[in-house]
Amino acid sequence: MIKRFTTTAFALGICMYAFAQEAPDAAVISKIRKEGLENSKVMDISFNLTDVNGPRLSNSPGLKRAQEWAMKQLTDWGLKNAHLEAWGTFGKGWQIDKYYAATTLPYYHAIIASPKAWTPGTNGPIKSDVVLIKADSVADLAKYKGKLAGKIVMMDAGAPLTSGIRPDFSRYADTTLAKMAEAKPMAGGQRGPRPGGANNMMAQMMKMREVRAAMSAMLVEEKVGLILTYARGGQGTFFTSNGASYALDAKPVSPELEVAAEDYLHILRLLRAGKTVEIEADIKTSFYNQDPQGYNVIAEIPGTDKKLKDELVMIGGHFDSWHAGTGATDNAAGSAVMMEAMRILKSIEFKPKRTIRIALWSSEEQGLFGSRGYVAKHFGDPKTMVLTPDQKKISAYYNLDNGTGKIRGVYLQGNEAAGPIFKSWLTPFADLGATTITVSNTGGTDHQAFDAVGIPGFQFIQDPMDYNTRTHHSNMDTYDRLVEDDLKQAATIIASFVYNTSQRDAQIPRKELPAAPAAATTGTTAPARN
């Protein structure tokens, strides 16, 4: 008992000492809070990224407009070396120039829908009876050959809608945050047994892909006029996706509309009942292949300490979005917060010891391409774990990409040693609801690119809001879904984390370097959301 008490007391003393050593400068934190909460520009930044510049699909004109605007804005605030940096080859850009579709029989009704990304438009205005295709196998497609030229078609499939029993909008309960804080790290690479029926499910999926691929090829060959597909969602919200490859040498596909569930099911019921449904449509899309390179926006506040100015603190969020909305919560919110954090630090005339660099990533939605390309170029290759000298010069990377919700804490990504440090840094913001430190991982965001090469990379815990229910990749992802007070809070906290990381004598502690070629993930895993 005495030994246990002595050990515990000693450990407690060490923790209290570390906590005291990490206590933030109260005067500076006060300045950051005042600027971030009382003089915020985060909603103006968000307005420009969404309403002014529009959707920011990878390599689209909208993304390029927003990138140019961001570089100018960061420069106007006094940041240095604002520029576009190529991360590698992406492929074609794409945008919608015109969209119109409506039923004209049995009566007029405008259809809620969007062209799928990277699909062509119609060959001018078209009007056609809708052909319902029933095909469970490749052989079933033969009966439609020679009958579909110029036709509008749809598949005989669509899950009935059910009313939700959970609210669309939510915040984390204290009990949920407490469970997150209690999470324990898992042994790397441990996985449970494959669930029963997994092989059967895989076989079914392969069969479905085979039928879809054969159907797509047949519809192109038949010169179908337009395909209607069922979009996930409900109550006027639909979640969008790409309908074709963005590769420069991608095979041609048919024009395709992703249709809101209510409209799709309305048409489907009529057709199943033997009624005639006529639709008119006019869709124009454009492709951009003059410059297939992908680019990130980079800017910085140079360090001033003779010994530490060559070291880095990085923050970022992905700048690209999907196309049915204006990409407000995914991820103008995160990008605007990071830009606002930099503005806050410049406004209080902060002269950092370490250089602070912001990165606004592109093509995150297609596979974290912007951040992974940047990390490979500057810090190392996670496939070989061959690292550059600069890998040792970056203290930490902080990311924001889970919507408009305010920060409730930090995912440590298995980096237990950073826990007491971050706990201390969150203390001044307990009144704003940010208190939780969890050892858990979270996936699907750009911090993973840094974590993969042994750099401390972190994503903040955010209130869910209606991110997964209404806005993530949907036509409802617009400026109106942003919560101003939450974005102010997030920018203020991140500015303080950047300040503390820049001024800290030592870098943020690191986990054990991942092994090559396959790195095992350490820690409990939270749901991946990108």
Could you walk me through the main structural features you see in this protein, from its secondary elements to its overall organization?
α2 (26-38) packs antiparallel against α13 (484-503). The chain has 13 helices and 20 strands. The protein has two domains: 39-90 and 292-409 and 443-503, 3-Layer(aba) Sandwich (Aminopeptidase); 93-160 and 198-288, Glucose Oxidase, domain 1 (3-Layer(bba) Sandwich). Strands 1-12-14-13-17-20-18-19 form an eight-stranded mixed β-sheet, with helices on both faces. The chain is of the alpha/beta class.
List the helices and strands and how they pair.
Elements: H1 2-21, H2 26-38, H3 42-52, H4 61-76, E1 80-89, E2 93-105, E3 109-110, E4 113-115, E5 126-133, E6 152-155, H5 174-181, H6 198-221, E7 226-230, E8 233-234, E9 237-238, E10 256-259, H7 261-272, E11 278-288, E12 293-301, E13 312-318, H8 328-347, E14 355-361, H9 369-378, E15 380-381, E16 386-387, E17 394-399, E18 407-411, H10 419-426, E19 436-438, H11 447-451, E20 457-462, H12 467-471, H13 484-503
Parallel strand pairs: 5-6, 6-7, 7-10, 13-14, 13-17, 17-20, 18-19
Antiparallel strand pairs: 1-12, 2-3, 2-11, 4-10, 5-11, 8-9, 12-14, 15-16, 18-20
